[in-house]
């Protein structure tokens, strides 16, 4: 779409009178876009609900251009440039390689620039206005009510208090909680506090699975609040809620929306690697707002900020059940890759697997690459025919995880796809090729975190098999020992 500016007002193409049509230009071509003062207006509440705290493309707004234009003329919404001074105003991309040029039917220009970085959310190009709400804000009309009678552990209690304080005072906080500490419950009091004081809050996670799992839990905890859940393919796109759960990419659509943003698994792909997603978090927050980062394995950058005191941090070094984290064993497996390619299992790995089968203990065995894992599968199946393997592109992935949970699979070979989130009570875990460069410290700690999750089965064996011990392996073990030490020091560990 193109515009004409007349009396400092944008006129969208369909409303431009005949005599001014030759002045039609792409929004990118105007130096200055003035804001229109707010005027008395009978605005549309559904449009307000959709647009408030967002920056959307025309295609994302199911209202007529006429309606939008009237709101604009009364100062209730604004048209902003989608791309400005080489930056995508939706995702923050500034890398010239991540823009393309196309011949554009909307602005009739030969080289209309568009952003390739956030194109999966619909194309932002030079001539695309981003539409934001500038009308009256919305009050949360519903009184929040926290329906949760669970008990917090000592570690959770302390973290919960700090989350409340951070939300009250618009601060940043890193919650560094070991796998199995119960970080969701730590948020309840803070969310309640935010809702009570009329704040709008969002929980973002890089993984859709997490959003699916958290939504019913939060909806149960806050039964009077319509919790909105946004992910690729979500049907709640247009609904407003004071409590929104979303995958990190969905943040691109928001602008100055939230009084508190909670980012879960802040270290997990792609957030940790993707600068534009960090931009999206900053863009989605209000100027005065809190940012709460949750992780079991902070990146070295976050750890540094935490050590220096620039990022206030609260640690939960102990699991909810109070038992110490199982410490990984390190075991030499020789040239395991060569052995497997010759159709044999390294002795130490075969012994470990047979022991699990004899004791009827289920196990996950992690591999650094799909190829080696697939090569190893038939060799493992000689030990037991029901042994299976799973990887990211496996169409049977969900079914296999389910059968593993039911106890139908004795040993499941897996790539790092199961490093997070999957909990099977009483499993033992092995990492084959823990020395592979693909396994970072965080991954090894997360994998170790699969063991001993349930209070009635708090122990378990975790073994790193290698062909040459690496610093990364040593660091992962050190990380886990350190957490146990801190837990003991606080007096939060159950002594066995
Ligand atoms: Zn973009
Ligand atoms: Zn264009």
TrEMBL record:
Q: Write one Pfam family the protein is assigned to.
A: ResIII
Would I find Nucleus among this entry's keywords?
Answer: no
Keywords in alphabetical order: ATP-binding, DNA-binding, Helicase, Hydrolase, Nucleotide-binding
Signal peptide interval: none
Where the record annotates domain Helicase ATP-binding, the positions are 164-316
CDD domains xrefs: DEXDc_ComFA
- The answer on whether this UniProt entry bears the keyword ATP-binding reads yes
Return the InterPro entries for the record. Answer: Helicase/UvrB_N (IPR006935), Helicase_ATP-bd (IPR014001), Helicase_C-like (IPR001650), P-loop_NTPase (IPR027417)
Q: Which domain of life is it from?
A: Bacteria
Q: Name one GO biological process term.
A: DNA recombination
Q: Name one GO molecular function term.
A: ATP binding
Q: Which residues form the Helicase C-terminal domain?
A: 344-496
Q: Which PANTHER family match?
A: COMF OPERON PROTEIN 1, PRIMOSOMAL PROTEIN N
Q: What is this protein called?
A: DEAD/DEAH box helicase
Which organism is this entry from? Falsibacillus albus
């Amino acid at each position: 779409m193109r515009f004409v500016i007349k009396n400092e007002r944008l006129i969208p193409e369909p409303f431009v009178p005949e005599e001014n049509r030759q002045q039609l230009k792409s929004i990118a071509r105007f130096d200055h876009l003035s804001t229109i003062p707010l005027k008395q207006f009978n605005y549309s509440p559904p449009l307000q609900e959709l647009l408030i705290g967002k920056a959307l493309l025309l295609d994302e707004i199911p209202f007529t251009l006429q309606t939008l234009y009237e709101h604009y003329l009364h100062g209730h919404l604004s048209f902003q440039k989608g791309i400005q001074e080489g930056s995508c105003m939706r995702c923050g991309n500034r890398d010239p390689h991540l823009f393309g040029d196309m011949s554009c039917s909307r602005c009739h220009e030969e080289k209309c620039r568009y952003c390739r970085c956030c194109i999966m959310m619909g194309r932002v190009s030079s001539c695309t206005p981003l539409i934001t709400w500038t009308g009256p804000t919305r009050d949360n009309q519903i009184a929040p009510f926290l329906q949760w009678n669970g008990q917090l552990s000592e570690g959770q209690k302390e973290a919960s208090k700090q989350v409340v304080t951070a939300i009250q005072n618009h601060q940043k906080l890193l919650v560094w909680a070991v796998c199995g500490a119960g970080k969701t419950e730590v948020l309840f009091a803070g969310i309640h506090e935010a809702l009570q004081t009329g704040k709008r809050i969002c929980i973002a996670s890089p993984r859709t699975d997490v959003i699916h799992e958290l939504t019913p839990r939060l909806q149960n905890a806050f039964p009077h609040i319509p919790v909105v859940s946004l992910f690729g393919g979500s049907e709640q796109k247009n609904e407003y809620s004071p409590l929104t759960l979303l995958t990190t990419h969905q943040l691109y659509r928001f602008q100055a929306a939230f009084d508190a943003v909670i980012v879960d698994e802040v270290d997990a792909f792609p957030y940790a690697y993707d600068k534009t997603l960090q931009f999206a978090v900053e863009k989605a927050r209000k100027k005065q707002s809190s940012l709460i980062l949750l992780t079991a394995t902070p990146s070295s950058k976050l750890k540094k900020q935490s050590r220096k005191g620039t990022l206030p941090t609260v640690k939960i070094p102990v699991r909810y059940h109070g038992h110490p984290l199982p410490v990984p064993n390190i075991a030499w497996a020789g040239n395991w890759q060569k052995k497997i390619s010759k159709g044999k299992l390294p002795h130490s790995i075969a012994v470990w697997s047979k022991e699990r089968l004899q004791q009827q203990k289920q196990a996950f065995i992690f591999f650094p690459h799909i190829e080696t894992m697939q090569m190893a599968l038939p060799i493992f199946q000689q030990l037991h025919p029901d042994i299976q393997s799973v990887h990211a592109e496996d169409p049977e992935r969900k079914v296999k995880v389910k059968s593993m949970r039911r106890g139908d699979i004795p040993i499941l070979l897996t790539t790092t796809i199961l490093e997070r989130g999957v909990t099977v009570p009483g499993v033992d875990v092995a990492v084959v090729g823990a020395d592979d460069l693909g396994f970072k410290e965080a991954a090894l700690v997360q994998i170790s975190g699969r063991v001993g999750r349930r209070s009635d089965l708090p122990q378990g064996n975790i073994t790193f098999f290698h062909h040459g011990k690496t610093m990364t392996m040593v660091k992962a073990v050190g990380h886990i020992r350190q957490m146990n030490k801190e837990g003991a020091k606080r007096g939060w560990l159950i002594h066995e």
